Amino acid sequence: MRTICSIISDGILIILGVIAAALLLPMLFGNRTLAVLSGSMEPKIPVGAAVYVQECSPYALEVGDIITYQMGSSTLVTHRIVNIDEETQEITTQGDANHAPDSAPVAFASVVGKVVFWIPLLGYLSIYIKTPLGIAVGCGILIVLILLNFLPDILTEEEKGPAKKRRKKRAAAGTTQK
Description:
This protein is α+β, with helices and mostly antiparallel strands. It has four helices and seven strands. It has helices spanning 2-28, 122-128, 132-157, 162-173, and strands spanning 31-35, 50-54, 66-71, 75-85, 90-94, 106-107, 111-119. The longest helix is centred in the first third of the chain and has 27 residues, at 2-28.
């Protein structure tokens, strides 16, 4: 019983550790993790991907780079650079799935950073774990892990002491008690 619980518990911990590392480790290197919510960058970056955005100077950007920028007060957009005008300090972007460049240029000051890599589907998880249901599921997983670690000890506790000795004597004598 101990081995099965340990294997399941270890497996869950490894999976959770890999997911946590994928979401949190990039932050140690100055990257932001964002979820892609629309299909404007498909097929290159699919909906639901987690993109990792690294801060950089707008002057270090090149045509073809994928950037994330602030549009309005709260919307972040991730698109590819199709033109840079250093004189006006504006960048023209376009989603890979779009047929034309975005109508409004992006001011250098609005650039959040350059997309350095992405992981498909992980963005869905990063959104989900911030919801009430996601928090409840996370707590449930934690409870299951705790139970898997302590359940074998609780079950084998019953096997110790006088009850175990009586059962061994009955088994040796060939009798059982109901």
